[in-house]
């Protein structure tokens, strides 16, 4: 639009708004109606510009005698820039502020960082604890698995709670709960095994609500075109939490004793909780500071924001893709949790590393996962943006997440050096991280409104794999070998691959759980992405 048209459309005002010191009168204002109050006109100079002011019976109009080249400016942008100038905002032309949705993602990332720091410290501390208290491998397996007793209880409950009251309160509760339980662990160990079992189960209760709550929050905050990257970043917080816990635990144990690990790690949760309360919101609709442009972007690809009042359990459990999620989550977590809890022991017993070396070398697979998870998320989102269907993308990513670990675990029985064994472990875990863009992203794909409940369902199966797998590993090691442990994991990875490719989907409209009336394909930027 031209500059003249721009001024005509935006500047209608009364003469007192013009600073008198800047006005030079060329012609005195004169009444053209003869009444003294009707209509008039006059020419004035404002700075270097000559202005023409006209008045009719009810309003004043200003014309500027200026010449300029035509230029284009969007209506929304022009009004936004004008408001910023009038308010004295000097940020016009500068980069926009950091997106609030990614602030939420980073806070979830930091929560999961603390989550795995507090979880893996036991896998290091259990070595001096077992020596001090004379625990057998079977007892160690029971202690490690006791965490999953509580973790199992809150998967579905946490999903229901998050979907009904909001993810902010649920995730905040979880972090505080597991942080307190972490601090109490050394005290419980000194009191006896029953107390230690209870405290570890209590810790599992707190961490059990974290994943459903996070999934609920991100399903509301993150558009589908950014889903894989955001989830990959959050889950890489778990991997970096493992890196941090495994790296610092040996040092703390060596310098201050094994109880210091639990006291120091557990206290960090209070710092996170204070930031979470001040910055986080369960939904974009709840955030009064969210910019309108970002809110529009988020809501354009979201489903109904009405609160969840009931869960359609019969409908959910009648669908094959839901069972594909459940079975695949079980198969995936069996191998993942075994490596999470038993890897330092493997390095210590098989590779003959000392305590410090076991912790440091156990870091490498998790560090690899942190990198490959984000690489996989970037690849998955890029494929979706280029038109590849979500179904195909999820199947590709999860197939890599299954077959990659299966291949590298089979190589462990053929290597003859600690360096190659560590490399195989790192490659196994690195390929496993592609699952974050596979099954872990699929809950939001097929049922975004009930993503918390759906993740709670599938992760319940995953936790059962952790309970049985961790305890079974202790039994297998007492009566067999590490090769037997890895063979079971490989077999389950292969089963998961078959089930996932046969029954999974990335389409939302296959089910429309809870959003039959609110799903709006016309608001989705890429309408073919769910096909």
Automatic annotation (TrEMBL):
Q: Which residues form the Major facilitator superfamily (MFS) profile domain?
A: 104-508
Keyword DNA-binding applies: no
Q: What residue intervals traverse the membrane?
A: 102-122, 142-162, 169-189, 195-218, 230-252, 258-277, 322-343, 363-384, 452-473, 485-503
Keywords attached to this entry: Membrane, Transmembrane, Transmembrane helix
* CDD domains linked: MFS_SLC17A9_like
Q: Which PROSITE patterns match?
A: MFS
The record, for InterPro entries, names: MFS, MFS_dom, MFS_Na/Anion_cotransporter, MFS_trans_sf, SLC17A9-like
Answer yes or no on keyword Membrane.
yes
**What topology does it adopt in the membrane?**
Multi-pass membrane protein
| Annotated compartments | Membrane
Taxonomically, the superkingdom here is Eukaryota
Family per similarity comment:
Belongs to the major facilitator superfamily. Sodium/anion cotransporter (TC 2.A.1.14) family. Belongs to the major facilitator superfamily. Phosphate:H(+) symporter (TC 2.A.1.9) family.
| Listed name of the protein | Major facilitator superfamily (MFS) profile domain-containing protein
What organism is the protein native to? Solanum tuberosum
